[in-house]
Design a protein that fits this description.
Elements: E1 2-8, E2 13-19, E3 24-29, H1 36-44, E4 47-53, H2 59-62, H3 65-71, E5 75-78, E6 82-83, E7 86-87, E8 89-90, E9 96-99, E10 102-108, E11 117-121, E12 124-128, E13 131-132, E14 135-136, H4 142-156, E15 164-167, E16 173-174, H5 175-181, H6 183-186
Parallel strand pairs: 3-4, 4-5, 5-8, 12-15
Antiparallel strand pairs: 1-2, 2-3, 6-7, 9-10, 10-11, 11-12, 13-14, 15-16
């Protein structure tokens, strides 16, 4: 499995292209912007986009869907039945789906948004705005902040230290690093152990 990050400088979001080593069917997670750099990345690796996985429906993470669907015949997978004006294959907590040859485990982690999903593919977690390097995602209230913290704990506490975390914003990190240095987790009474 190859993971290629794509950074949208305008809104500072991360998208991820995931495919096999030698071309073939691939997945995009959170297409914030579909620009010539992303298309070149897809085409130069001889990928065909089979699916678009959405971590949550905020426009900053879904704005590239219309352009993506003009070029590729991809299905959209999300917690919500419609995203960016398009029907989706709706996913739920605990689902495991096989897409483009990858086994994808789905975790519902509300708090940042009610429809927040985290995708686990192998030893990689695609967390959207749930868990970022050094902090948790933003929330609108103390109750949502507590909900996010508790959901992060219940979802990630059992995972190995070596899981890689690919967030919707900022740098990639590892579970061990977040257990030691994540400010929002450290200031709370909840741990990731």
């Amino acid at each position: 499995m190859r993971i290629y990050p794509h950074f949208n400088a305008e809104g500072k979001e991360n998208s991820y292209l995931i495919g096999p080593d030698n071309g073939g069917r691939a997945i995009i997670i959170d297409p914030a912007a579909v620009d010539t750099r992303l298309i070149s990345l897809i085409e130069s690796h001889h990928y065909t986009i089979e699916a678009c996985l959405i971590t949550h429906g905020h426009r900053r993470h879904t704005a590239g869907i219309p352009a993506l669907l003009k070029i590729y015949d991809a299905k959209i997978y999300a917690a919500s039945p419609r995203v960016a004006g398009h029907d989706t294959v709706q996913l739920f907590d605990g689902d495991t789906v096989s897409i483009a040859g990858f086994e994808i485990h789905v975790h519902s982690v509300p708090g940042h948004s009610p429809d927040s999903l985290v995708y686990r593919i192998g030893h990689a977690l695609f967390t959207g705005d749930v868990l970022l390097a050094g902090r948790l995602g933003s929330t609108k209230s103390i109750a949502e902040s507590r909900q996010l913290l508790e959901n992060v704990h219940s979802t990630f506490a059992h995972l190995d230290d070596n899981f890689l975390i690919y967030p919707g914003h900022g740098a990639a990190t590892k579970m061990r690093t977040e257990r030691i240095f994540n400010y929002d987790i450290l200031k709370s009474e909840v741990t990731l152990y």
